[in-house]
Every structure is written in structure tokens, then in C-alpha cells.
Amino acid sequence: MDEKVIDYIESIVLDRSDLLQEMEAYAEANDVPIMELVGIEALLGMLRIQQPKRILEVGTAIGYSALRMAEALPDTTMSHLKGTGKGMRRRRSSLAVHLHVKGSSPCSVMPSSCRKM
Length: 117
What we know:
Helix content is 49%, strand content 9%.
């Protein structure tokens, strides 16, 4: 993609929370793969249009994409399969606290096993 287009898209993206910025910095510093800003914004735009009831994320690394989707779609049930990567437990805790995940909350932070959707 043209660098000017990327710069423009990044310039119109709303500020992200401290938690998201911390996760982005952690990912960059530790070579953890997360979606690039332009890619996640494009995905979130499509998801806002489609308004899915459920999303299954396969492979979560540090939970960055899941958090972005959960924030953009608060009425959508988020599930994921097997998160890996250093600091995953801490990130799950941060995600749970940030989204106020409790019991039947729309966003469930999954253990490293598959749960029926």
C-alpha cells in the first residue's frame, strides 16, 4: 500500500486507550505479531457494518485484536482459541478488567481449550 495512504489512514484513527498503546509497544518490543493499525481499522470497519453476533478468534498472541473487536462491538460475543505468547495471563487479566468481564458478559476470555459457541 502507498505510504501516503497509510499515513492518511493512521492520521484519522481515533486515539487508543493506554492499555492498547501499552499492548502495541509490548508487541513491537517483543516481536509479538499483532495486526497493523491500518489492517485492524479496516477489519473493525467491516465488522461495524456486518454487526456479527459472535466472533471466534483463532490464535490470540496477546489478545490485541480481540480487545479491539470487543471495544468496537460491545454486543458481540467474543471467543478465542488457545492464546500463546509471553505475558498472556497478564494480558487476559488486563482484558477482563478492562472490559468488566463477569459471568455471562458479552466478551469471554477463553482458556487454552475450545468452548462451544
